[in-house]
Amino acid sequence: MKKYLIFTDLDGTLLDHENYSYGNNKKIITSIINNKNDVIFNTSKTFSETINLLKELNLTNMPFSTENGALLFFPKNRFKKIKSSSDYDKYWKIRIAKLSSKNWHQFLLKKQKKFNFLIAQDLHSKILKKYTNLDNTSKMLNREASQIILWEDSLVDLKKFKNELKSEKQGVLIQGSRFMQVSSVCNKRIAKKLISHAYHYQFCGTYSRKTIALGDSKNDIDMLNSASYPCIIKNPYGSLPKLRSNKKNIIKSSKFAPDGWNQVLYKLNKTLVNKIF
Fold first, then answer.
1. Integer Cα distance of 269 and 276 in angstroms
2. Does pTM top 0.85 for this prediction?
3. What is the domain range of residue 138?
């Protein structure tokens, strides 16, 4: 029987939104991978943030994407070199977003003269801790292809900012649960598609083309819409990601993360002929 690729967001989905705990999810992840299914992080987090969590959950032989799909990483111990990838320690790395975090920082400094927003990189760690509950914010700021901002201007000016971002730098603004990410064109759907393609090319026939995706925020919508089984995790904001009106097989949790993550997978597992765990 073919196995599943399970793409998941982290903050507010697999991890508690406030304290970043994965609760009892390590146990179910172990069951999932023991049944030869793969769990793939598709996150807004940086490489520095993600790598430690992969080790904790025994997922170091899984590919993953960071910075909302700006960068993809494939473990060398499992994947042959992928076209357009570069050598990056134990991984093959594919860069989707063209401009660097330095480029975007320079762009944003100029735009601060016209619009009212804060650049996370320029904030004191004590201020960032209030927004993130992180004692150490250095890893979240160790970005390669994006910058994150806190918008403090009007919605009208936000629209103007988006237009200038697109026209001047071919950039996009991606709304997350806490911050907005500024980067070259990328998203979690593109990352999911490219990772899936690599699996089917290198492990032909092993994995089902029907994918599973889990998320809780606006930046997960593209990924969820592209999945055969989209799973939406309840979030503290009360507004769930709105998927296409004709989207089928949607499963929603009644619990917040981390419990909502395993709740939707248990629900989904009951409906599948090929079990996840």
1. 6
2. yes
3. 101-184
